[in-house]
Amino acid sequence: MTHPSTRLRTGPSARLRTGLLQPGVRRREVWAWAMYDFANSGYTTVVITAVFSAYFVAVVAGNAEWATFAWTLALSVSYALVMLTAPLIGAWADAHASKKKLLWLTTLGCVGFTALLVFAAPGALVLAISALVLSNYFFGTGENLIAAFLPELARPRALGRVSGWGWSLGYVGGLMSLGVSLAYISWAQGQGQGAAEFVPVAMLITAGIFALASLPTLLMLRERAVPQPGQTARSAWVQVRHTLSHLERLPDLKRFLICTVLYQAGTQAVITLAAIYASQVFHFDTQRTIMLVLLVNITAAFGAFLFGHVQDRIGHVRSIALTLLGWIVMVGLAWAAPDERMFWVAANLAGLCMGASQSAGRAMVGLLAPPAQQGEFFGLWGLAVKLASIVGPLTYGAASWVTQGDHRQSLLITGSYFVAGLWVLRGVQAARGHRAARRFARSANY
Asked: Residue 301 sits in a domain of what CATH number?
């Protein structure tokens, strides 16, 4: 994105900066921030959802009875590590004004360990699980850090819109990584290669796209926070404990974090197990699964972009409630689908709701978090999301085991998290929560 011209500075772009962006923020910096969503989305799309998950179960673990459990357990370990460290990392980043430096570290970590999956050959369980746990840990930590820049870029009334721009661009990035991987896989299959040969190369492709696409963010995004002298790792722990002990003073944020755990549990189950559900219930092969994920990413990008604007118009709580109602309808359609035609409808509705609810949740936290502690409170949000990433998939897995492999009933049971999230959301008031965050930041006891 280029610099605005002199003419534009007195026209629409000037109004954009004045009306939507914080003082001193240029449009190209917002684009650079959003490019990180573009860069890292390929990891979740290719590694977690569409390609490596099925490859891990079928090839690395040899379709063993425990293979799916091993996959969900590995992801749960990585999410648990993010949960344990996210608030501390956020507090440390706030104290040392180091979000940008840490973002460099997490990006290199995720790219490096994703590339290491090239060695995930049949039977290489230790290497595959280790690289998966570490790459997903760096991904999740980086996701929290990039989210903490949002309130520095957008004014409160535009948080939903700017978050939606980033999230919709993220789905475009996921489409690109998956599309390039699909093109290579199709070529490799035409050459007679098997999954053990072309899937590792797809991991290299995904890592390379992540590395290249993240460069605008890492080079152009500014660190606006001011270091707080005398802060140590121990003081960061003290700050986290202090924040948690005073979270009662932010009741709307606290309630929304609980809501986040609930509805994200359902969302993360869908993301993690979509390929398995399509394969087990509707007998999708690898190519149809990838096509499904491609189409869902398109609808998710549209949902994130559209609902970013809707959220700023109708309000954060109403917007999230609307997406949760959509999730509930989606679960009902997928559960009742007599054939794959209705399942395709349900999957695309899931895409719309996925993009909308995830973007809206990030913007909501930006509104409810105290201004000077964005990194810390986005760390708490990351904790909530990662807790949901453990609870949701494990609930689905346990339900599948209890129902003796009935994936329809497992989806229905997991879908109850959306109903619970909608119920908890009823008590959240965005305007009241925003005022409480401002008071919290000004408090002499903080």
From this structure: 1.20.1250.20
